[in-house]
Design a protein that fits this description.
Blueprint: E1 3-8, H1 12-24, E2 29-35, E3 39-41, H2 48-51, H3 56-59, E4 60-62, E5 72-75, E6 78-82, E7 87-90, E8 96-97, E9 100-103, E10 108-109, H4 117-120, H5 127-143, E11 150-155, H6 159-175, E12 179-184, H7 196-208, E13 211-214, E14 219-222, E15 226-229, E16 235-236, E17 239-242, E18 246-247, E19 259-260, E20 263-266, E21 277-279, E22 284-286, H8 297-315, E23 330-334, E24 337-341, E25 355-356, H9 358-376, H10 379-385
Parallel strand pairs: 1-2, 1-9, 2-5, 9-21, 11-12, 11-17, 12-13, 20-22
Antiparallel strand pairs: 3-4, 6-7, 7-8, 10-18, 14-15, 15-16, 19-20, 23-24, 24-25
The protein binds flavin-adenine dinucleotide.
Residues 9-14, 35-37, 43-44, 46-47, 77-78, 104-106, 124, 159-160, 163, 249, 251, 281-283, 295-298, 300 line the site of flavin-adenine dinucleotide.
Length: 389
C-alpha cells in the first residue's frame, strides 16, 4: 500500500523535513509538499531586504532546488486540516489526502487585541512584508527633511525588531535619509528572556547606531500617526512596524488537535494529539520538559531531521525518536555589526568568552546563514549569497 506523506510549509521546518524525507522514504511512500510560495525564504535574514531589496535574490531559494523530481510540489494556501477525513484543505486547488502530515506552517503576527495596532502597522513575516517596509521607509524619507525627520517606530525588541531597527539605521546612514528610529519594548529589557550580557551589548550597538530605545511601557493603542503607551508620552510615527509577538496560523483554527493559540501541541517526538499529524517549527509547541522549544530558525532546523525520520518510523511501525533541543547560542545583527552569545562550536568545545562582537560575530552570523543555504540547496548558492548575508 502506498502511504501519502504531506508536508505543509516551505520554511526551515518544512524545507528541512522535505530534504530528509526524500532520502528516508522508500518506494511505498509518496511525498507531497504544499506551500503558499514557490520558494524557501531564509526568514532569519529577511530584515536585510529592508535596507536593500536586491538581497532577496540571495535569500529566496526556488523549490526546484530542494524538491526531488519524485516530490509533488503544490503552490497553494492551506486553509484547513480535516483530521477525520485526513485531508488538507486548500484555497484554490483540490483537497490533498494524507496518511501522515507534517504541519510546518510557521507563525503569524500576534496583536494581542491592542486597539488599532493591526490596522496601522506593518509586520515582518515574509518577503513581501520586508519589501513593503523598505518602500514605506523610502517614501517616508522622501517626504521628510533634516529639520523635520520621519519617525520610524518599531514595536517589539526581540530578534525581528532589533534586527529591523539595525537595518533601517544602516539605510539611514547609506542614503543620508532624514530618519529618527525608535525601538519600543513593553518589558524591562530589550531581547527579553535572554542573558543580560547580550541584552547590554545589543543596547550599546543600537544606541551607537542612533536608535532610540523605549522599554518597560506597553503600547495600549495605535492610530495612523501616533501610538499611546500605558504610562509614557504618545509617540508619533510615519512608519510603524510591529514585530512584538507570534501566534499560530489561522489555517489551523478548526483543526481538531490540541493547540495553544493555534500553535499545535506536539510531544518531543513531534507527534500531536492525532497520531497521523506531526508538527514542528513555529507552528508547534514542542514539549521539552520545563518549557517548549523556542520559536527560532535554529530549533526548526534541528527538529526537521528528526521529525522526518519519525514519520518514516511511524510508517514502518517502529518506535519514534525523542528530540532534545540543543541551544547552540545566538547571534544577532544590528546592521553591519553583530553580537554573539553562548555559542557552542562543534564537539562540545567551549569558547573563552560568552559574549563577543566585532568581525568574529559578524562572520559567524554570515556563516550560520550560509551553512543553512548550503544544506538546503548547494554550496554554490551559499557562496553566491555570502556578500548579502
Ligand atoms: C526578521 C527576523 C529575524 C529572525 N532572526 C532569527 C535569528 O537570528 N535566529 C533564529 O534562530 N531565528 C530567527 N528568526 C525566527 C525564525 O525565522 C523562525 O523561528 C523560523 O522561520 C521558523 O521556521 P518555520 O519553518 O517554523 O516557519 P517559517 O520559516 O515561517 O516558514 C513557514 C512556511 O509556511 C508557509 N505558509 C504559512 N502559512 C501558509 C498557509 N496557510 N498555506 C501554505 N503555506 C503557508 C510560509 O510561506 C513558509 O514557507 C527571525 C525571524 C524574523 C522574522
Amino acid at each position: 500500500m502506498t502511504e501519502n506523506v504531506v508536508v505543509l510549509g516551505a520554511g526551515y521546518a518544512g524545507a528541512g523535513a522535505v530534504k530528509t524525507l526524500q532520502s528516508e522514504l522508500d518506494d511505498n511512500a509518496r511525498l507531497t509538499w504544499i506551500a503558499d510560495v514557490d520558494y524557501h525564504l531564509v526568514l532569519h535574514e529577511s530584515h536585510r531586504v529592508i535596507r536593500d531589496p536586491d538581497v532577496q535574490e540571495d535569500i529566496t531559494i526556488p523549490v526546484e532546488e530542494i524538491a526531488a523530481p519524485s516530490t509533488r510540489f503544490v503552490e497553494d494556501e492551506v486553509t484547513g486540516l480535516d483530521t477525520d477525513e485526513r485531508v488538507v484543505e486548500l484555497a484554490d486547488g483540490e483537497d490533498v489526502d494524507y496518511d501522515y502530515v507534517l504541519v510546518a506552517l510557521g507563525s503569524q503576527t500576534a496583536y494581542y487585541g491592542i486597539p488599532g495596532l493591526e490596522d496601522h502597522s506593518l509586520t515582518l513575516k515574509g518577503l513581501d512584508d520586508a519589501l513593503e517596509i523598505h518602500e514605506a521607509v523610502v517614501e517616508a524619507s522622501r517626504e521628510a527633511t533634516r529639520g523635520d525627520p520621519a519617525q520610524i517606530v518599531i514595536g517589539g525588541a526581540g530578534l525581528s525588531g532589533i534586527q529591523t531597527a539595525g537595518e533601517i539605521a544602516e539605510f539611514r546612514d547609506n542614503h543620508r535619509a532624514p530618519l529618527e528610529i525608535h525601538l519600543v519594548e513593553a518589558l524591562e529589557e530589550i531581547f527579553p528572556g535572554n542573558d543580560p550580557e547580550i541584552q547590554q551589548a545589543l543596547r550599546d550597538l543600537l544606541q551607537d547606531a542612533g536608535v532610540q530605545i523605549h522599554t518597560d511601557d506597553p503600547i495600549t493603542e495605535a492610530n495612523d500617526d501616533v501610538i499611546h503607551f500605558d504610562e509614557g508620552e504618545p509617540l508619533s510615527h510615519d512608519v510603524l512596524v510591529w514585530t512584538g509577538g507570534i501566534t499560530g496560523q489561522d489555517a489551523l483554527e478548526t483543526a481538531d488537535l490540541e493547540k495553544e493559540h493555534n500553535r499545535v501541541n506536539a510531544g518531543a517526538n513531534f507527534q500531536t494529539s492525532n497520531e497521523r499529524v506531526f508538527a514542528i517549527g513555529d507552528s508547534a509547541v514542542v514539549d521539552q520538559g520545563d518549557r517548549p522549544a523556542p520559536p527560532t530558525a535554529q530549533a526548526a532546523w534541528q527538529a526537521a531531521d528528526v521529525a522526518a525520520e519519525n514519520i518514516n518510523r511511524a510508517i514502518q511501525n517502529r518506535p519514534l525518536k525523542t528530540w532534545e533541543h540543543k541551544d547552540k547560542g545566538t547571534v544577532v545583527s544590528v546592521g553591519d555589526k553583530a553580537v554573539a552569545h553562548g555559542v557552542k562550536p562543534a564537539f562540545g568545545l567551549a569558547l573563552p568568552v560568552d559574549t563577543f562582537g566585532g568581525v568574529p560575530a559578524k562572520n559567524l552570523k554570515k556563516a550560520i546563514a550560509a551553512r543553512w543555504i548550503a544544506d538546503v540547496s548547494s554550496a554554490n548558492r551559499a557562496r553566491k549569497a555570502w556578500p548579502s548575508l
